[in-house]
Amino acid sequence: MNQLALVFLNGITLASLYFLVATGFSLTFGLMRTVNLAHGSFYLLGGYVGYTVSEQTGSWVLGALGGGAAAALGSLLLHQLLLARYDGQTLRQALASIAVSTIVADQMLAAWGAETYQIEPPPQLDWTIVLSPIGGYSFLRVSTLLLAVVAAILLWLLLVRTRLGMMIRAGVDDSSIVRALGVPILSVFAFAAALAGAMAGIAGVVCGSVLSLAPGDDTHFLLMSLIVVIIGGVGRLSGAAIGALLVGLLEQFGLAYLPTYSVVLTFALMVAVLAIRPDGIRGSRGVA
Amino acid sequence: MRKYNYKLLVGSLVALGVSGASAEDRKPIKVGVVATLSGAFAALGQEAMRGVEQAMAEANGSVSGHPIVLTKASSDATPDSAVSAVRKLVESDGVDLVVGPLSGDEGIAVKEYAKSHPNVTFVNGTSAAQDTTLRNPASNFFRFSGDGAQWMAGLGRYAFTEKGYRRVAVVAEDYSFPYTQVFGFMTEFCALGGHVVSKSWVPIGQKDYSSVVASLPRDIDALFVGLSGADAVNFLTQMQQGGIEKPMIAGTFTADQTILGAKGRFKKYFIGTPSASPVADGLDSKGWDDYAATYKAKFPDGLGSPSLAAYTYYLNTHALLDGLSRVDGDLADGHVKLNAVLAKLNFDAPTGGDVHLDANRQAITDNFVTEVYERSPGLLVNHVVRRIKGVNQTLGMEPAKFIAMGPASRDNPSCP
Amino acid sequence: MGASLSVRDITVQFGSAMVLDGVSLNCVTKPLALVGRNGVGKTTLCKAIMGLVGIAAGTIELDGRRVDGRRPEQVAARGIGYVPQGRRIFGSLTVEENLLVVSPRAAEPYTLERIWERFPRLSERRTNLGTQLSGGEQQMLAIARALRTNPKMLIMDEPTEGVAPIFVDQLVSLIADICRTGIGLLLVEQNLRVAAAIAELALVMVNGRIVMQTPTSSLLDDEMAQRTFLGL
After folding, report:
1. Is the pLDDT assigned to residue B10 strictly greater than 50?
2. Under an 8 A CB cutoff, do C102 and A183 touch?
3. pLDDT, tens digit, for every residue of A145-198?
4. Residues C81-101: pLDDT tens digits?
């Protein structure tokens, strides 16, 4: 019972990280039909920049902001300089973004080396909380979950309560008609690209504090984002949340009870979802 | 008149050519290097390349006047990536010699590839699966470093007799190298009467091990951790967060400089952890001091002390270059001379003690039992507690008896 | 008063297929109908005017200013409103949001209040999701949405397709009303009765070309032409 609850908690805290990275990916994919395969690079870039900034300034919050800003800038540049140029040519966009991710990965290897990094978490969060059925649990992990919930609420408010969010939702539904109604969709796209980058970057800083940062994490998180989006449904906040939860829980339960096959379980879930609901659990219509 | 001039011309050309050759202009020898520059073991791959460069620098980049041309290729620790990297080096870049690979399963795959390319000579990198050389070896694959079981020599005994551990749980990555390491540890530990009560084999590149931690048995004396690179950092952090306060016994790569030198707060959990390895940072020997000093001078942004990946790639490259110079760079007739010399090579390792090969072209070499200590604030190094001399691949057992134990696997050996 | 849309010699190719082959038309003040069988290129023409598909040759002008080669949002900003085939209502937006998401080129005359007055039925359903409306209501919403951009010229692609018969008459009078306010209209329509009720003139399109221009009334009486050109 104890262990079950613990594994469950581990699953949902891991899911929080996946959610933070996958939402941006899902949003840009749903909105622009752009398969940005460099999304994972911005996750790792954000983490590394966050590490450097927080080392220099001694402030975790500045690190998170710096990491988010760097990743947002990178994502925006990639979109404006490369992906927007190949609007509608998804294969070219995919290939161009793979090229960028390879180049960025090498640059990061040159700048930060191949060592594993951990970011010093804010001491206010770094303590053990006592949860009655389980005993002690890292509050750092609990705060990851809280952060994901706050991020989800803010995103939901942005999407549902603002005109910008309205444009994004309409764009996910039917971007060409949005354009034909005069909406300056290219600015909306640019905003979405930067937002997706920022979320990935902040997730990188959070993950670097709770887990670690190392070369190869970029492709790992890209792969996880793809799986989360395929399982949850493209372009939807709730889809990313459900997808992330399922993947996180399955990964942790798999590791606890079937460690050898835990990787297979995630893909088996993906195959099952594709077979039964090809559009993902939450379908592909709508954003919220 | 014309004829005379022609002869003069040719003669002077030949003369120029001969004088050039005696200096630096003999045919270049192409050497390909494979290491994991991406994926979970990227830090090890970076170190591997440093090891190769250090050995190259010692030889001033040439052997008997043949410039050595290095071509690097990256794998990601999967066997197919290693084979495609080697295939690219051999079939497209046309290298004569290959150094590598880094990871265990990769080594087995590259050995199989070597069998179909007898005219290329392969020396190992770090890869330490047992069956790369123990069963069905390739005649052109040489390993001047130990396998994962050899690297554990002395640790099982130390844990049992010195530390007094009787019940141990294992957490290790799920592929041939950790199987081999656990095999090496258990061969000694179980023979003395110790029990390995559970084994958790986890996928490589896992980010979040907290649920593995949650499922560990609590009635143990110590935990054997056989994880490398980022995997080890993640696991150890989560082990602390999960409140496991059992002492650790570390696999060779778990207490390696790639992890001891990483940046993060998990490091303090390491102090006092016993491990075993063919290298030891705290080794008190002239050869090692020189080697480590050269490393630090050459790679100011490198680790605090050369890691096992750097050392093994260095050792294998050094042996290869040594062999090449002994045959004066002669690669005729499918490297027949070079291969004969390599098989009989005997040299002193920087760690002291000699290195030579057995009939399967597998190194017989010294091994160390170590403990992690903090040399200066933040700088963790391995301090040697025992030197085990001349460890061979069958760990001193009769070869037939050793092979009869069966290949290292998830379930072999077993002493619950 | 009175916008003019002038299309000259445009061609559109999809790969090697010529979808529009030198199409020209002038739509000035009075509504103009465009008829033809399915797949002859009517919708492609609408999209080409809106900048949603690229043209290989020719020019498109609105009130003497070139709009070809412009992005759809720029074409809309110049004053062309688009009511697409199949209505294409934003299903995850409410009725009101469908109208608010539009970027109007001018605030007047179609303010949100004005739209609610004009479309009382939509007003009643303003908090419903777009997908919860009936076909006819969705069509009204699509028209209202295009009006919200305050266009000089409207392009409507099959506005009565899939709309219940009792709704068709309402739509016809609604569209005719809009035209009387001075907004130009290019109407793609399969239903000749509807086309005739709104526009006096019709262009007939066959295989990517305009083959004739004729009064809609005479087309209504000419069964031979209907069979040949419209497959009726």
Report:
1. no
2. yes
3. 999 999 999 999 998 899 999 998 898 888 899 999 999 988 998 999 999 999
4. 999 999 999 988 999 999 999
Cβ pairs A/C, distance under 8 A: 77
* CATH number for the domain formed by residue range(s) B150-277+367-404: 3.40.50.2300
Looking at this predicted complex, what is its ipTM?
0.90
Structural domain spans, chain A: 2-216
CA of A68 to nearest chain C CA: how many angstroms apart? 29
Domains of chain C, by residue range, sit at 4-230
> Cβ contact (<8 Å) for C73 and A184?
yes
Per-domain residue ranges for chain B? Answer: 29-146+285-361, 150-277+367-404
The full DSSP string for chain A is -HHHHHHHHHHHHHHHHHHHHHHHHHHHHHHH----TTHHHHHHHHHHHHHHHHHHHS-HHHHHHHHHHHHHHHHHHHIIIIIGGGTT-HHHHHHHHHHHHHHHHHHHHHHH-S--B-PPPPTTT-SEEEETTTEEEEHHHHHHHHHHHHHHHHHHHHHHHSHHHHHHHHHHHHHHHHHHTT--HHHHHHHHHHHHHHHHHHHHHHHHHHS-B-TTHHHHHHHHHHHHHHHH-TT-HHHHHHHHHHHHHHHHHHHHH-GGGHHHHHHHHHHHHHHH-TT-TT-SS---
**In the block, residue with structure tokens 């330490």:** B128
Specify the amino acid at residue B219.
D
Question: Looking at the partner chain, which of A167, A176, A287 has a beta carbon nearest the beta carbon of C72?
Answer: A176
Chain A residue numbers with beta carbons less than 8 Å from the beta carbon of B230 are: 116, 212, 214, 216-217
Give pLDDT tens digits for B224-235: 999 987 888 888
CATH number of B29-146+285-361: 3.40.50.2300
What confidence category does residue B360 fall into, taking pLDDT thresholds of 50, 70 and 90?
very high
In chain A, what residues touch C102 (CB-CB under 8 Å)? 181-183
Among candidates A170, A172, A180 on the partner chain, residue whose Cβ is nearest the Cβ of C72: A180
The highest-level CATH class for domain C4-230 is alpha beta
Which of A18, A120, A255 to substitute to test the interface with B, most B CBs within 10 Å? A255
